[in-house]
Design brief:
It contains 5 helices and no strands. With 140 residues, it is an all-alpha fold.
C-alpha cells in the first residue's frame, strides 16, 4: 500500500474520532451547537436538533472509520467521500443560504476538514487505481 493511502487512512481515523467526540458533545449539551456552529441563529438550536446532528455525525464517523479499515472497498470509499461532500454542502448552506451560521472558527474548521478530505480522497482514488492496475498486471 502506498504511503499516501496510509496517511489518508490515518486522517480518516482522526476525523472519525473527532466526529465521535462531537457526537457525545451534541448529546450532552445542545448549547455546544449554538455557541460553536450555529452562532447566527442560536435560538433555532434545541435538544432534538442537537441529537439529530449527533446521530448524523456518529453515522459519518462510523463510515469514515470503516473506510480507513477497508480503504480498497470502492463502494465504502465513495460513500465516505460523499459524507465529506454532504458536510461541506451542509455547512456552506447554513452560512450562505439559511444564515444560521457565521464564518467563525467553529464553522471554518469543519469546512476545511471536509475540503481537505475531499481533495485527499480524490487523490487517493488515483493511488487505488494504480494499485489495482499493478495487481492485475501481476496476475497476468
Amino acid at each position: 500500500m502506498s504511503r499516501f493511502l496510509n496517511v489518508l487512512r490515518s486522517w480518516l481515523v482522526m476525523v472519525a474520532v473527532i466526529a465521535a467526540g462531537n457526537t457525545l458533545q451534541s448529546f450532552r449539551d445542545h448549547s455546544f451547537l449554538s455557541e460553536k456552529l450555529y452562532t447566527a441563529g442560536p435560538g433555532l438550536v434545541n435538544g432534538l436538533q442537537a441529537r439529530t446532528f449527533g446521530v448524523w455525525t456518529l453515522l459519518s464517523s462510523v463510515i469514515r472509520c470503516l473506510c480507513a479499515i477497508d480503504i480498497r472497498n470502492s463502494t465504502l470509499y465513495y460513500i465516505t467521500l460523499f459524507t465529506f461532500f454532504l458536510a461541506l454542502v451542509h455547512f456552506l448552506s447554513e452560512v450562505f443560504i439559511y444564515h444560521t451560521a457565521a464564518l467563525t472558527i467553529g464553522v471554518m474548521a469543519p469546512l476545511m476538514v471536509a475540503s481537505f478530505s475531499i481533495l485527499g480522497m480524490l487523490i487517493g482514488l488515483q493511488y487505488l487505481e494504480v494499485e489495482a492496475l499493478s495487481q492485475n498486471k501481476k496476475k497476468n
